[in-house]
Task: inverse folding
């Protein structure tokens, strides 16, 4: 008599279950509504050239949001990415100064500088145990001050055409007219981000954001995982800076406020502030939703000064939602105890 043992694999959760668990369902609904509204107000927006231009302009924010996602899902913040974007553009313009042969060496220098900034943020946060909010706020101020000291408050130099092409040019095509390089870079980095979160590193990253003590007892190197998240955030901010340099002028205001816009996009995508829950696709959808919302406000002739108000409302709502979710999780982990029934006097 032979006995066969079959391995029973758990059923893969449905897409709706994943969306509900990751908190990304609402942002996809909002994105669909905005797409429909824009289709009614301005059908020409969806003509291929106009749509490609929108995606090209949205690419830096999407890239920045992917990098910010790694940090937020691990339970931390990175407020230095906006100043890093500005610093990278100013550094590139001053070092390249219009010389084409300097482009790639300067890009390599930018990547190295970005990795160094991310490494410092990560090590100060994890090893010195300085709260990431304070660490990255200090880095933001240091970068802003150093760039203004270096340039005297008025950035000089010029970016070469081979540098600017990544943010403003593309591949000529019959229907689309031009497939932007920025869109291709955005898609490649989105795929890289998804693959990172599907790896063991990504699973430990989420577990760290959910409960870093439990992740440590399970064998996860929490300090190393979180440091890697800051390094990835700075690397993606560097790429965003390269894209921004393609269509933005070299001014002291480049990158200003982008850190809050990226955080807004991530929390709009359903990523839980405090870490432990969130889908990288939701963060990408949040960035596209925010960019489309800005475009809709322009379509409705609303003042651009309304954007900070929208960011504030989204962040406050996300923090309130995160606090409510934390209370619910603590309540579910604490099982109610049923009092024992009293026994009659004299019972054995």
Result:
């Amino acid at each position: 008599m032979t006995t066969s043992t079959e391995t029973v694999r758990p059923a893969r959760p449905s897409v709706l279950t994943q969306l509900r668990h990751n908190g990304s369902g609402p942002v996809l609904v909002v994105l669909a509504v905005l797409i429909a509204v824009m289709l009614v107000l301005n059908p020409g927006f969806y003509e291929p050239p106009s749509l490609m231009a929108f995606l090209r302009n949205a690419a830096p924010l999407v890239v920045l949001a992917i990098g910010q996602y790694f940090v937020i899902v691990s339970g931390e913040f990175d407020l230095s990415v906006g100043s890093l974007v500005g610093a990278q553009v100013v550094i590139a313009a001053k070092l390249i100064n219009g010389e084409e042969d300097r482009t790639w060496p300067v890009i390599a220098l930018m990547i190295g500088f970005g990795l160094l900034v991310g490494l410092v943020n990560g090590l100060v946060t994890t090893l010195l145990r300085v709260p990431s909010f304070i660490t990255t706020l200090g880095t933001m101020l240091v970068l802003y001050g150093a760039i203004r000291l270096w340039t005297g408050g008025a950035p000089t130099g010029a970016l070469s055409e081979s540098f600017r092409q990544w943010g403003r040019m593309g591949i000529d095509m019959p229907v689309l007219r031009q497939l932007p390089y920025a869109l291709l870079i955005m898609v490649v980095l989105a795929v890289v981000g998804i693959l990172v979160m599907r790896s063991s590193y990504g699973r430990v990253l989420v577990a760290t954001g959910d409960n870093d003590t439990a992740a440590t007892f399970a064998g996860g190197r929490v300090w190393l995982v979180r440091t890697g998240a800051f390094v990835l955030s700075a690397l993606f901010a560097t790429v965003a800076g390269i894209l921004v340099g393609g269509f933005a002028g070299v001014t002291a205001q480049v990158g200003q406020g982008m850190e809050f816009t990226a955080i807004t996009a991530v929390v709009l995508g359903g990523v839980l502030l405090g870490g432990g829950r969130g889908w990288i696709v939701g963060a990408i959808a949040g960035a596209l939703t925010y960019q489309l919302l800005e475009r809709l406000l322009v379509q409705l002739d609303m003042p651009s000064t309304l954007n900070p108000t929208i960011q504030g409302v989204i962040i406050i709502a996300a923090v309130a939602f995160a606090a409510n979710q934390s209370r619910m999780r603590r309540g579910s982990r604490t099982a109610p105890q049923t009092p024992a029934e009293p026994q009659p006097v004299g019972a054995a």
Remarks:
- The chain is about 70% helix and 0% strand.
- The first strand starts at residue 170 and ends at 173.
- The first helix runs from residue 15 to 22.
